[in-house]
From TrEMBL:
Species of the source: Amycolatopsis saalfeldensis
Name the UniProt record assigns to this protein: DNA helicase RecQ
Record field: catalytic activity: Couples ATP hydrolysis with the unwinding of duplex DNA by translocating in the 3'-5' direction
UniProt keyword terms in alphabetical order: ATP-binding, DNA damage, DNA recombination, DNA repair, DNA-binding, Helicase, Hydrolase, Isomerase, Metal-binding, Nucleotide-binding, Zinc
Cofactor: Zn(2+); Mg(2+)
GO molecular function: 3'-5' DNA helicase activity; ATP binding; DNA binding; four-way junction helicase activity; hydrolase activity; metal ion binding
Amino acid sequence: MAAAPTSALETLHRVFGYDAFRGDQAEIVEHVISGGDALVLMPTGGGKSLCYQIPALVRPGVGVVISPLIALMQDQVDALRNLGVRAGFLNSTQDFGERQRVEEAFVSGDLDVLYLAPERLSVESTVRLLDRGKIALFAIDEAHCVSQWGHDFRPDYLMLSSLHERWPDVPRIALTATATETTHKEISARLNLDGAKHFVASFDRPNIQYRIVGKASPQKQLLELLRTEHKGDAGIVYCLSRASVEKTADFLVQNGIPAVPYHAGLDKRVRAANQSRFLREDGLVVVATIAFGMGIDKPDVRFVAHLDLPKSVEGYYQETGRAGRDGLPSTAWLAYGLQDVVQQRKMIDSSEGDEAHRRRQAAHLNAMLALCETVECRRVQILNYFGQAGQPCGNCDTCLTPPEQWDGTIPAQKLLSTVVRLRNERRQSFGAGQLTDILLGKTTPKVTQFQHETLKVFGIGTELHESEWRAVVRQLLAQGLLAVQGDYGSLVLTEASAEVLSGSRKVMLRREPERPAGARTSRTR
Ligand code: ADP
Ligand code: ZN
């Protein structure tokens, strides 16, 4: 029953109104239409949906799409219906009547595409339902959710390994926009896709300019970016907490920038209204937690800004990938500071889950820190992270303004020996603020209280400014030469610190290029 390749192209023209396939789409579509399994790694905006929608239309039966994005199913189904495609979904948000109508349509073959939440498959009645209809294919969207190594693991996805056993003749296509080599292998193994054809697109998004700046006063830095480079543009600003989402949205509005908040704590209707305003209006900024954006298809997002450090490179790549789907120049901007590192290390230490889980989180954070502190091309770093090669791009901050490297061994030794002394003398550890005050020889109340002005190291670090010391701390943390412990962000040594203290290890640091006035505290020298 294999369809002629022309019918795929014909469907592309007739239903979707597009002239031609992009990239690997044609090959993927053909492969699935002829009954083959496929694993597709393609960046956001690459056009993954058509890879299963067209085979679903061309092959006899209903294309069953497994997706974790329950909140978006209605939108996805509406979009397909607008194109004349018979689409429906089954998830926990429906009442009995709705569900029954969709089930009947499925059994009678009056559907082209059925979206299914993964947890539905653990319900025996759903499995029986699927047995009663004709299935054209299984599409497993956001396939990285099956990977425990990945950043977005969903236990429900583990059940998807049984699809092949239960329906061996139905082709499966798994798709994801984010996969390191490790995740790629894990998806393949867990979903029994080792025999499938793997399509790996380039993860480069050449129109996105990557920039990572030191965090001084993030809201003002953001405002300056928007005023100087993104006037009237639509964009997304990511913050870690709901509180900072609200504050930042207020701040932008007060400064004349149309902005709305989006986070899981908002009333459902407000959230939906803000999201649809963002999709429909020009030049609206949405300030959001990472709850926002999965599956959102707005082509002209001109910038994605992060005011807090993402937890992984995968997350960063996925979030920044929402910029510039239309291929036009766009900015991915991240402000990152010492406090981010301290806070995230604390979160990992206090997180639930086993030791292996914490180790994975720490590895994700370390990779993110390495990206922040690199002196090399950001794009090359990102591509390498996803196991792909690249050339310095000329379109990221490190390419445009190469940061200097400097030999920070002596400052590192001064800082680490201060940590040693504080621990030895008081059996107590202190955070970056106190360390910096001691190195700079400041007699603050807290310095006096602990008699830190009597330490040998008091005032030995006046060659650097406070902000520079903070950058040293941050980079030592990133390089694993210093660690954070306890609830108060106390700094402690690591095994590797000894090599620096003994002089057997050199420490190279990154000097941030000068930012425009106001972006960071100025520096002499
Ligand atoms: P992904 O799921 O990979 O992020 P989508 O499937 O949402 O990407 O596609 C991104 C955008 O590109 C959508 O607006 C889609 O309609 C458009 N698109 C995809 N394939 C083509 C094509 N062959 N020709 C024109 N536009 C396309
Ligand atoms: Zn570059």
